[in-house]
Write a structure and sequence with these properties.
CATH topology of the largest domain: Creatine Amidinohydrolase
Strand content: 15-25%
Radius of gyration: 23 Å
Strand order of the largest sheet: 4-3-2-1-5-6
CATH architecture of the largest domain: Alpha-Beta Complex
Distance between the termini: 44 Å
Order of helices and strands: HEHEEHEHEHEHHHEHEEEEHHEEEEEEEE
CATH class of the largest domain: Alpha Beta
Helix content: 25-40%
CATH superfamily of the largest domain: Creatinase/methionine aminopeptidase superfamily
Length: 382
Amino acid sequence: MILYNDRLRRFQAMIGGAADVVFFPISADLHYLTGVPRDIPNYGVTMHPGAWLEGAWLTPQHEPVLLLPRMTAEFGGLERLSGVEIRVLGDWDDPAALVRDILKRFNLPAKPRVAISDTATGETVIHLQKLVPDAVFISATALLRPLRVVKSEEEIAVMRRAGAVTEAAFADVLKQLKVGMTELDVVSEVDYQLRRHGSLGPSFTTSLYNSGPNHPLMFGQRLATWPRVLTPPVSVLFDFGAVLDGFCYDYGRTVSFGAPSEEQVRVHRLIMESQAAGIAALKADAATTSQVDAAARQVIADAGYGETFRHRLGHGIGMDVHEPPFLTAGDETPLQSGMLFTIEPSITQFNSFSARVEDVVVARPGGGEPLTRGYQDLIVIE
């Protein structure tokens, strides 16, 4: 069970010397501290009157005060929240007057240090500058990050369950795969199975990276790739994850449509060996993030595929899909036990076969602990 009050008290103790007041919009930061939930986002912005004030204010001494436009409070069901004071802005009320009233009760000093989330909008900042013209703005996300980066065993348990949902969804996706499906057919099946198995939805846009001699790899062109028929020989690379209790999973496997060629078998073996090297190197108190990346990357480079491993080895993960720190050259963050990372090596070739694998892994003193372990072999659909 996640104890939000404990998190909040720890954060308030940390900000005493750094900020006089803190603002978090509805976000992973606010969800982490108070349990105020998020919804699946929209592609286009949905605007409500006074949306710029939507979020919570807190100080080193005060419990959070959650300000909500009426539409968010009623249609989002947030007026039923407990453990936080809620103030609702009517459609014709003045949002500046409501925020001014909240700030007045905090008795802020001259030139107050106002910490705001990195995800706050520019509109929010502009209005706050008018209300508190002498404010010194700092990052609330940076203040909170030391708490979020190392996960408790309770948080790791939630993430393990999110991984189980993800892998169960994948198992049922595999039952539906057949030669002649389009990429859109497969993506739609993944998203359906995620929800069917208990996920709020995909933790990010479900993606496929597919390639073969007659099926060129195309990045970032979904409307062009979705209608393509998966005709053998082709490697189908999955990248998706579930959402569970506010936590985001990230998962990847490779499927061969048609009997795999020697090249398909080779590149898949290499990415699995690379991942194993990265997991082994994820040693808390004994390595840095860049050293883990280097250990996994060396396997692929030694085999002559170095240029086809086009991205960092992985990223921190938790209530956001991508969180700092990152497993990449130049990031020298020391590993701590309880940090969660994706370990996701890949070989992506534009006119030949590709492969990827991805699991969330916990940094431990003796090396990484993967939270998902299924489907280690190349999966074949004929």
